[in-house]
Amino acid sequence: MIDFLKKLAFDAGKIIKEYFYQNVNVYHKGKIDLVTDIDVKVEEFIKLKLSDNFSDVSIVAEESFDGNLNFDKAFFVDPIDGTTNFVHGFPFVAVSIAYISDDRKIGVVFNPILNEIFYAESGKGAYLNDEMINVSNTNDIRNSLIATGFPYSSVERNIDELMDILEKVLKSSRGIRRAGSAAIDLCYVAKGVFDGYYETGLKPWDIVAGKIIVEEAGGAVLNKRGEVYNFSDDYIVATNGNITNELLRILNGI
Ligand code: IPD
Ligand code: CA
Ligand code: CA
Ligand code: CA
Predict the structure, then answer these.
(1) 48 and 88 in one domain?
(2) In this predicted complex, what is the ipTM?
(3) Model confidence at 158: pLDDT above 90
(4) Ligand 4 centroid from CA 152, angstroms
(5) CA-149 nearest atom, ligand 1
(6) Cβ(106)–Cβ(210) below 8 Å
(7) Neighbouring-strand partners of residue 79
(8) How far apart are CA 156 and CA 251, in angstroms?
(9) Where does this protein hold Mg(2+) (predicted)?
(10) The CATH number of the domain where 9 resides is what?
(11) Is the pLDDT of residue 152 over 90?
């Protein structure tokens, strides 16, 4: 199945790349929460291929989500992770596809602009363009580069808390990056570019594939209490495994 999903991500990525350099119709789901015709087009393309080939597997996809997350086995699809980047021409955009069942987990994240395909299957390691990748071995947060993101709702609420944490992380690390795609942020933790990443308010399709890739690259993906992250958790915290306690302390205001 992983080869099928990689090919599907490549083909979906071709559509994203084709329209990346063009003007597209942009709509508002919220004050700063954007969606384009291409998000919908790519999602429909992926869903059709998945349902044609795996009719017994449910599909959870951002632009057609109906609120149901109770499945034995499901695909999680984010057709364009980084829609704001897509609209503004910032090259951090990715298609993210994951498959989850009781005994098998697969994650594929493809950035068609930078031509980077990250993928992992449970128990088989994580890869970028066919080279195995691993998290960094930085063990002091003072030497770390940390990624984060801000939920679209942050323009209306919890901005003070986010700024407070941001200030503390900034003072404790080498720097912070906000690249605008949760899926790529996670893959860059897996690749050892970022030593850690945290964000609040994400949805399953943002992070399911990236979580598998980080874990297979030797990292940890947790909630704010230091337990394995699951969908209902508010904060996601991904690290190389070495700076977890320091990052959790900051996020918890300790
Ligand atoms: C968004 C991106 C972004 C994160 C937002 C997500 P979208 O996904 O992952 O990095 O900060 O919270 O919603 O809407 O571009 O698919
Ligand atoms: Ca979106
Ligand atoms: Ca997303
Ligand atoms: Ca999206």
Answers:
(1) yes
(2) 0.98
(3) no
(4) 12
(5) 11
(6) no
(7) none
(8) 21
(9) 62, 78, 80-81, 206
(10) 3.30.540.10
(11) no
Distances in whole angstroms, Cα of residue 21 to Cα of each of 38, 73, 146, 165: 12, 36, 29, 35
234 labelled catalytic: no
* pLDDT of 242 higher than 70: yes
CA distance 222 to 173: 19
Enumerate the H helices of the chain as residue ranges.
2-20, 37-53, 83-88, 159-172, 182-190, 204-216, 244-251
Identify the nearest ligand to the CA of 183 by its number: 1
Q: In the annotation, is 83 catalytic?
A: yes
pLDDT of 157 > 80? The answer is: no
**Nearest-angstrom CA–CA distance, 196 and 51:** 35
Please report, for residues 123, 199, 218, 251, the alpha-carbon distance to residue 94 in angstroms, rounded to integers and kept in the order given. Answer: 24, 18, 22, 27
Q: Which residue in 199, 206, 215, 216 is the catalytic one?
A: 206
Q: What single letter denotes the amino acid at residue 191?
A: K
Say if residues 119 and 6 touch (Cβ distance below 8 Å). Answer: yes
Q: Tens of pLDDT along 17-33?
A: 999 999 999 999 999 99
Of 100, 133, 166, which one is at a domain's C-terminal end? Answer: 133
Same domain assignment for residues 55 and 149: no
Residues of the chain with pLDDT > 70, as a percent, come to: 99
